[in-house]
């Protein structure tokens, strides 16, 4: 086994640790210390980071790895994710999901894609189900999918407040959440319910109704697209203060912004200013999802594709434009999502943790290098390992 030492790194774990050396062996971080010394006859390679930032690889909790879309017909089905899409965005852990279409997009191809990404070197997981109810699963049971399929960590995206959803009642959603909760408890997984929140005035009402009428806590739900509008953001801040976690979507388009979406980084600044708990806020890419623009009648006007570069872009904007601390923003794309999904080896730089890390320019936050599971995928800003069929 070749050992690697990263020297003179300015480490954010995501907490600021100062200048620290890291020892990597296999896919693990074996040690972290200032002026690390190692006496060994094993092969050792060293990299002088020269004061560059070293931080955890990004944990993306919502990626349509097999593609999404289809709201404008078969020709609007979005393309599937490739390995380099994740690497360019600093994403080392992905969570795949189906969306609107669960007829031509299936769980079988979703699981196959997740396993393929794992073979190519990423860490990859998925949600069973999709927008609709009754829930489609692989085994015929939400509990069984979560308990018996290694990569399945929850259910989603279940759609509420959206004309594309199944218009679920709170009682129907409660039954789904209860199944996911028990499946997670019995398998030591998150069993989380990822919730797509659309643009209707109902907003998060269904989630609050479940908490009011049952013993299922708000923390069982993981609503995304909370920056869709100023009104939904305010409801999401209340949800966060009541004990829930909220997710902001980093991918956007000018058309969606013109309809009132709050930029992801700006939503974080506004939420924190109103006393939201920073440990219960995350960003996700919604990568390779369709980003549709609908008119008042629900007809499709335009459609674009979610980008996996978006987490890095919003990190830049939050630090340089919103003037938020790098450490605080980093939590929203590393340790927070990893904790919520119970991916205990992800989202942090620590001894014994997985060797998923990024090297960033300390001034511009430009991405210089990516390591996933102890292997380099980008060096000096150039991708060095691509997917099987990438040119």
The level 1 CATH classification of the largest domain is Alpha Beta
Distinct helical segment count: 11
- Low confidence ranges: none
Query: How many strand units?
Result: 19
**Whole-number tally of structural domains:** 2
CATH architecture of the largest domain: Alpha-Beta Barrel
Q: In terms of topology, how is this protein built?
A:
Blueprint: E1 3-12, E2 16-25, E3 28-33, E4 44-48, E5 53-56, E6 58-63, H1 83-88, E7 91-96, H2 107-120, E8 123-128, H3 142-148, E9 152-160, H4 170-187, E10 192-197, H5 205-213, E11 221-224, H6 230-241, E12 246-249, H7 254-258, H8 264-273, E13 281-284, E14 290-294, E15 300-305, H9 310-320, H10 326-331, H11 335-340, E16 357-360, E17 367-372, E18 375-379, E19 382-383
Parallel strand pairs: 1-4, 1-5, 6-7, 7-8, 8-9, 9-10, 10-11, 12-13
Antiparallel strand pairs: 1-2, 2-3, 5-16, 14-15, 16-17, 17-18, 18-19
Helix pairs in contact: 3-4, 4-5, 8-9
EC number: 3.4.19.-
Domain Amidohydrolase-related: 53-370
Binding site for Zn(2+) 1: 64, 286
3D structure, described in words:
There is one protein chain. The protein has helices spanning 83-88, 107-120, 142-148, 170-187, 205-213, 230-241, 254-258, 264-273, 310-320, 326-331, 335-340; strands at 3-12, 16-25, 28-33, 44-48, 53-56, 58-63, 91-96, 123-128, 152-160, 192-197, 221-224, 246-249, 281-284, 290-294, 300-305, 357-360, 367-372, 375-379, 382-383. The mean pLDDT is 95. The chain contains eleven helices and 19 strands. By secondary structure, it is an alpha/beta fold. The protein is globular and about 65 Å long. The chain has two domains: 3-55 and 347-383, Roll (Urease, subunit C, domain 1), CATH 2.30.40; 58-340, TIM Barrel (Alpha-Beta Barrel), CATH 3.20.20.140. Strands 1, 2, 3, 4, 5, 16, 17, 18 and 19 form a nine-stranded mixed β-sheet that branches. A six-stranded parallel β-sheet has the order 6-7-8-9-10-11. Strands 12-13 form a two-stranded parallel sheet.
